[in-house]
Amino acid sequence: QVQLVESGGGLVQAGGSLRLSCATSGRTFIVSTTGWFRQAPGKEREFVAAIRWTGGGTAYADSGEGRFTVSRDNAENTVYLQMNNLQPEDTAVYYCAASRIAALTQPQYYDYWGPGTQVTVSS
Protein backbone atom coordinates (compact mmCIF):
# COMPACT_ATOMS: atom_id res chain seq x y z
CA GLN A 1 0.00 0.00 0.00
CA VAL A 2 2.96 2.32 0.67
CA GLN A 3 6.31 2.24 -1.07
CA LEU A 4 9.47 3.88 0.23
CA VAL A 5 12.84 4.28 -1.46
CA GLU A 6 15.92 5.67 0.26
CA SER A 7 18.73 7.51 -1.47
CA GLY A 8 21.75 9.60 -0.59
CA GLY A 9 23.94 7.06 1.11
CA GLY A 10 27.62 6.76 0.38
CA LEU A 11 31.13 6.86 1.73
CA VAL A 12 32.31 9.80 3.81
CA GLN A 13 35.18 10.50 6.16
CA ALA A 14 34.67 11.02 9.85
CA GLY A 15 33.33 14.51 10.47
CA GLY A 16 31.59 14.65 7.12
CA SER A 17 27.90 14.98 6.32
CA LEU A 18 25.27 13.17 4.30
CA ARG A 19 21.66 13.93 3.50
CA LEU A 20 19.44 10.91 3.07
CA SER A 21 16.12 11.09 1.27
CA CYS A 22 13.09 8.84 1.58
CA ALA A 23 10.58 9.10 -1.25
CA THR A 24 7.13 7.81 -0.36
CA SER A 25 4.47 6.77 -2.84
CA GLY A 26 1.24 4.83 -2.99
CA ARG A 27 -1.37 5.33 -0.29
CA THR A 28 0.66 8.01 1.43
CA PHE A 29 -2.38 9.44 3.18
CA ILE A 30 -2.40 6.54 5.62
CA VAL A 31 1.10 7.34 6.89
CA SER A 32 1.21 9.09 10.22
CA THR A 33 4.91 8.80 10.98
CA THR A 34 8.04 8.19 8.95
CA GLY A 35 11.04 6.89 10.81
CA TRP A 36 14.68 6.23 10.12
CA PHE A 37 16.38 3.10 11.39
CA ARG A 38 19.83 1.68 10.86
CA GLN A 39 21.40 -1.73 11.06
CA ALA A 40 25.08 -2.56 11.17
CA PRO A 41 26.42 -6.07 10.51
CA GLY A 42 25.82 -8.30 13.51
CA LYS A 43 23.70 -5.67 15.21
CA GLU A 44 19.98 -5.32 15.74
CA ARG A 45 18.08 -2.70 13.83
CA GLU A 46 17.95 0.49 15.87
CA PHE A 47 15.93 3.67 15.85
CA VAL A 48 17.57 6.83 14.53
CA ALA A 49 14.89 9.51 14.09
CA ALA A 50 11.24 10.00 13.19
CA ILE A 51 8.88 12.74 12.08
CA ARG A 52 5.12 13.03 12.11
CA TRP A 53 3.40 14.22 8.96
CA THR A 54 0.79 16.15 10.93
CA GLY A 55 2.43 18.76 13.11
CA GLY A 56 5.96 17.79 12.18
CA GLY A 57 6.95 16.56 15.62
CA THR A 58 10.31 14.84 15.70
CA ALA A 59 12.15 12.33 17.83
CA TYR A 60 15.80 11.32 17.90
CA ALA A 61 17.84 8.55 19.37
CA ASP A 62 20.54 9.64 21.79
CA SER A 63 23.16 8.58 19.26
CA GLY A 64 22.02 11.20 16.77
CA GLU A 65 20.84 14.01 19.03
CA GLY A 66 22.56 17.23 18.06
CA ARG A 67 24.03 15.76 14.87
CA PHE A 68 21.04 14.46 12.94
CA THR A 69 18.01 16.39 11.74
CA VAL A 70 14.89 14.86 10.25
CA SER A 71 12.59 16.96 8.09
CA ARG A 72 9.81 16.53 5.57
CA ASP A 73 8.59 18.00 2.29
CA ASN A 74 4.83 17.58 2.14
CA ALA A 75 4.55 18.47 -1.54
CA GLU A 76 7.10 15.84 -2.53
CA ASN A 77 6.09 13.20 0.03
CA THR A 78 9.73 13.01 0.96
CA VAL A 79 11.45 12.76 4.32
CA TYR A 80 15.07 13.74 4.80
CA LEU A 81 17.71 12.84 7.31
CA GLN A 82 20.55 15.33 7.53
CA MET A 83 23.52 13.72 9.23
CA ASN A 84 26.41 15.90 10.35
CA ASN A 85 29.69 15.08 12.07
CA LEU A 86 29.42 11.46 11.04
CA GLN A 87 31.53 8.95 12.90
CA PRO A 88 32.62 5.39 12.06
CA GLU A 89 30.05 4.01 14.47
CA ASP A 90 27.35 5.53 12.27
CA THR A 91 28.24 3.04 9.54
CA ALA A 92 25.16 0.98 8.74
CA VAL A 93 22.40 0.38 6.26
CA TYR A 94 19.84 3.11 6.82
CA TYR A 95 16.18 2.35 6.29
CA CYS A 96 13.16 4.58 6.21
CA ALA A 97 9.85 3.17 7.36
CA ALA A 98 6.24 4.28 7.56
CA SER A 99 3.82 3.80 10.41
CA ARG A 100 0.08 4.38 10.50
CA ILE A 101 0.29 5.50 14.12
CA ALA A 102 2.26 8.02 16.16
CA ALA A 103 6.04 7.89 16.18
CA LEU A 104 7.50 4.86 17.89
CA THR A 105 11.09 3.79 18.33
CA GLN A 106 10.51 0.06 17.92
CA PRO A 107 10.79 -1.20 14.34
CA GLN A 108 8.03 -3.77 14.81
CA TYR A 109 5.45 -0.98 14.87
CA TYR A 110 6.33 0.24 11.39
CA ASP A 111 4.30 -1.24 8.56
CA TYR A 112 6.28 -0.42 5.43
CA TRP A 113 10.01 -0.35 4.74
CA GLY A 114 12.34 0.82 2.04
CA PRO A 115 15.20 -1.37 0.78
CA GLY A 116 17.84 0.66 2.60
CA THR A 117 20.85 2.75 1.64
CA GLN A 118 24.41 2.12 2.78
CA VAL A 119 26.23 4.73 4.82
CA THR A 120 29.92 4.10 5.41
CA VAL A 121 32.05 6.42 7.52
CA SER A 122 35.81 5.96 7.37
CA SER A 123 38.35 7.03 9.96
Features:
7-stranded mixed sheet, 52% strand, mainly beta, 123 residues, globular, 4-stranded antiparallel sheet
Low-confidence stretches: none
Alpha-carbon distance between the termini?
40 Å
Mean pLDDT: 95
Tally of DSSP β-strands: 11
Approximately how much beta-strand content do the residues carry? Answer: over 45%
Percent of residues in helices: under 10%
Rg from alpha-carbon coordinates: 13 Å
The number of helices is 0
Overall form: globular
Largest sheet: 7 strands, mixed
Instruction: Report the structural category.
Output: mainly beta
Order of helices and strands: EEEEEEEEEEE
Task: Note down, in words, how this protein is organized.
The strands form 2 sheets. Strands 2, 4, 5, 6, 9, 10 and 11 form a 7-stranded mixed β-sheet that branches. The mean pLDDT is 95. The chain is mainly beta and 123 residues long. 0% of the residues lie in helices and 52% in strands.
